[in-house]
Amino acid sequence: MKPEWSCLKDVKIIDASQLLPGPHATSLLLQLGADVIKVERRGSGDPSRELGSAVFAQFNRDKRSVALDLRDNADREAFLELVRGCDAVVEGFRPGVMNSFGLGYDDLVKVNPAIVMCSISGFGQTGPYADNAGHDLNYLAMAGYWAAPVQVESKVARPGVRVSDYAASSYAALSLVVAIMSARQNGYGQHLDVSIHDSILSWTAPTAWLARSFEKKPVMSPLVMPENDIFETQDGRHLALGILENKFWVNLCDCLGEVFPLLKDPRFSTRMGRLACKLEVNQLLKQVFLSKPLAQWVQYFADVDLPFSPLLGANELFADAHVQSRGTLREFAKEGTIAVRFPVKFSLGLPDSEGKVPALGEFTPGATE
């Protein structure tokens, strides 16, 4: 008989954060079975509500919205009453703000010694930048995201998603699970200091460290690979070529060598040879891929063992056969929105939640709004 799914089903979390990092972290735990109470500011709620219902829904489906003004004494007591019966509190204010409300970690442990408090802030609770304002681009900039060139014609451009926010939310979710497990074993909670800057720094530091030796001639960095790049096609579309292992270069040459004989230049036959001729190899590949529209390249490489991918547009993405087959996305046709299921497949399965988007304060005790 298949075991009953349990995981985090008896875990209760207060989400007093807003926008992306905290709400995404708690939404991950909700998908793993946790009960999440979303504490929003009375009257205005999470600022993401102002960005549209689909934006708010993305990270807040199936949470129970409670509207409180944490500066108000009665609402502060109501918050502490929630803390008595919960495992964790997630907040995303600047350092010191929760203390100013009388809701810092020392205040919370007085009513629940096993409470875990997870504070997600831009630069952490300590350090010279702790009080600085910032958003995703700022943390990427200060963590050296653009310090390590990886293209022959490297360009500074903002990422399409908020990379540092997602890095922090993932670390926060993992740390919350560990801290809650620990608290249940020994009866003591703890304060988690999650810095968005620290989180993305943990990803960028290794490549930035290597890049120090190539700041004057960045193209010479071994991270800059002429055949591992994004190339434009004849119709203005783009493709990604991810060649790293030499066997894939051999496959590319076997496929295209008769039409483009320069690819078979003996100087390019090894990885070290291509690294020594970066500009020449990259320019050659640019000319090759500009010779046909993207659809023809997709057809051309259909049966070739090659790390090749078209850069999909938004509509193409959701029509993609693999995306549909994996079932990671869940569509709410009536709302015209989607939800992203937990992106790890558990052999025992993960049940779908109802998918309801809470109205502001609808679970506030005695609420009439």
From TrEMBL:
Please indicate if the UniProt record lists Transferase as a keyword: yes
Gene3D superfamilies, alphabetized: Crotonobetainyl-coa:carnitine coa-transferase, domain 1 (3.40.50.10540), formyl-coa transferase, domain 3 (3.30.1540.10)
Per the record, the coiled-coil ranges are: none
Q: Which UniProt keywords apply?
A: Transferase
- Stored SUPFAM superfamilies: CoA-transferase family III (CaiB/BaiF)
Single GO molecular function:
transferase activity
What highest taxon heads this organism's lineage? Bacteria
Q: Which PANTHER family match?
A: ALPHA-METHYLACYL-COA RACEMASE (PTHR48228:SF5), SUCCINYL-COA--D-CITRAMALATE COA-TRANSFERASE (PTHR48228)
Kindly provide the name given to this protein in its UniProt entry.
Answer: CoA transferase
